[in-house]
């Protein structure tokens, strides 16, 4: 589901790589976001959602753009993406941030802070303030106001905490749960629930808690202290964009969104539709290519192909392949060619 802006540009390159690497995987395309709104008057049709549910994995580019900012909220491209995430019930969004050795100098931080960096943000994706009701912009007692509701339930926190603990067990065994329990009831609830879940499901995992604002600071000060960061929908969104700059560019960051076992995962770059560079053929396709890599690993049972692809991206970077965001001048297609050559 290529979506809007640079979405189709980067997904086209991931598709070329999929066709070369795993030719047995059948690929079909669907519209989402502004592209779907323009064609069907809605950012996600029931038919497309049904097809996504029947797939083994969904690879999405990005949605949104200035053309649709005046569109009604529930018809905007971003609403289509939220509906897709909710419709697939992909509640755990895995956002790894690791620094390829060749990109240590492209990071916003000094070399010693990011060399060997490998952290995983586990972001709750289908609840919290992005979905809570009531929400709106209206008027009460002559006062115009805008409001959202940050709300989490016991099962919502428990299921994503379980995933964070499982993932930590396969890594360095440490989870840092972030919230703002000092000022938010939903944050205090999050901390209590994660603590309870840890007692029940967190054997072998060390759990720490941190306020989200402090975590933002620590991500920049000393990012290698983290193994797995567990966050709600809003804080996970913000912290993962911050983590992007540790790795060199937001154009490098993939994500996997997982639901119950046996259901399709949703794979998408962390970045958006980048209207400022859309149509120029200069977007970095690596986040989309690495999202394909995560799909191979987490949904398609092709771990070996995933390892090969990850190594090929590293090799292309080692050989100096760089798009503009990484300080080079390769086009989107030429960057994908470099990965294909390395493959
Ligand atoms: N998952 C999604 O579909 C997301 C969609 N959006 C939507 O995207 C639109 C633009 O949002 P922004 O805040 O500008 O975020 P953005 O991530 O699209 O762009 C932020 C900056 O990063 C650059 N950038 C992003 N991806 C890049 C890539 N692959 N290669 C090189 N440079 C890249 C852009 O050129 C821009 O300067 C909005 O409509 C927003 O709602 C934003 C974030 C996620
Ligand atoms: C719905 C998206 C536009 C929110 C976002 O920025 C993200 O999921 O990364
Ligand atoms: Mg975001």
UniProtKB/TrEMBL annotation:
Protein's pathway: Amino-acid biosynthesis; L-leucine biosynthesis; L-leucine from 3-methyl-2-oxobutanoate: step 3/4
Residues annotated for substrate binding in this entry: 85, 95, 123, 213
Subcellular localization, as worded in the UniProt entry: Cytoplasm
Cellular compartments per GO CC: cytosol
EC number(s) stated in the UniProt entry for this protein: 1.1.1.85
Keywords from the UniProt entry: Amino-acid biosynthesis, Branched-chain amino acid biosynthesis, Cytoplasm, Leucine biosynthesis, Magnesium, Manganese, Metal-binding, NAD, Oxidoreductase
Residues noted as binding NAD(+) in the record, renumbered to the chain: 65-78, 272-284
Catalytic activity: (2R,3S)-3-isopropylmalate + NAD(+) = 4-methyl-2-oxopentanoate + CO2 + NADH
Gene Ontology annotations of biological process type: L-leucine biosynthetic process
Necessary cofactors: Mn(2+); Mg(2+)
Record-level Gene Ontology MF annotations: 3-isopropylmalate dehydrogenase activity; magnesium ion binding; NAD binding
Site (Important for catalysis): 130, 180
Textual note on the cofactor: Binds 1 Mg(2+) or Mn(2+) ion per subunit.
Subunit structure: Homodimer.
Biological role stated in the UniProt entry: Catalyzes the oxidation of 3-carboxy-2-hydroxy-4-methylpentanoate (3-isopropylmalate) to 3-carboxy-4-methyl-2-oxopentanoate. The product decarboxylates to 4-methyl-2 oxopentanoate.
Family indicated by similarity: Belongs to the isocitrate and isopropylmalate dehydrogenases family. LeuB type 1 subfamily.
Protein name: 3-isopropylmalate dehydrogenase
């Amino acid at each position: 589901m290529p979506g809007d802006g640079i979405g189709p540009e980067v997904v086209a390159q991931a598709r070329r790589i999929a066709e070369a690497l795993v030719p047995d995987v059948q690929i079909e395309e669907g519209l989402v976001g502004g592209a779907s709104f323009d064609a069907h008057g809605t950012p996600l049709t029931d038919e497309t959602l049904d097809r996504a549910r029947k797939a083994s994995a969904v690879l999405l580019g990005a949605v949104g753009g200035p053309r649709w900012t005046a569109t009604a909220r529930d018809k905007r491209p971003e609403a289509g993406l939220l509906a897709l995430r909710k419709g697939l019930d992909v509640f755990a969004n895995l956002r790894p941030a690791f620094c390829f050795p060749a990109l240590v100098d492209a990071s916003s931080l000094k070399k010693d802070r990011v060399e060997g960096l490998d952290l995983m943000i586990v972001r709750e994706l289908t609840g919290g303030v992005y979905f809570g009701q009531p929400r709106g912009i209206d008027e009460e007692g002559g006062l115009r106001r805008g409001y959202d509701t940050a709300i989490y339930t016991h099962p919502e926190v428990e299921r994503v905490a379980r995933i964070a603990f499982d993932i930590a067990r396969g890594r360095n065994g440490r989870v840092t749960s972030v919230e703002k329990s000092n000022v938010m009831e939903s944050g205090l609830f999050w901390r209590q629930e994660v603590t309870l879940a840890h007692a029940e499901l967190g054997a072998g995992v060390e759990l720490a808690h941190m306020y989200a604002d402090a975590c933002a600071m620590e991500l920049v000060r000393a990012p290698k202290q983290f193994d797995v960061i567990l966050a709600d929908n809003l804080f996970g969104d913000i912290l993962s964009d911050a983590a992007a700059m540790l790795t060199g560019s937001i154009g490098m960051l993939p994500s996997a969104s997982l639901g119950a076992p046996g259901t399709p995962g949703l794979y998408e770059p962390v970045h958006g539709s980048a209207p400022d560079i859309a149509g120029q053929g200069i977007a970095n396709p690596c986040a989309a290519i690495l999202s394909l890599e995560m799909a191979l690993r987490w949904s398609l049972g092709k771990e070996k192909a995933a390892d090969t692809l990850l190594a090929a991206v590293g090799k292309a970077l080692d050989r100096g392949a760089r798009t503009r965001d990484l300080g080079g001048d390769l086009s989107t297609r030429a960057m994908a060619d470099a990965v294909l050559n390395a493959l």
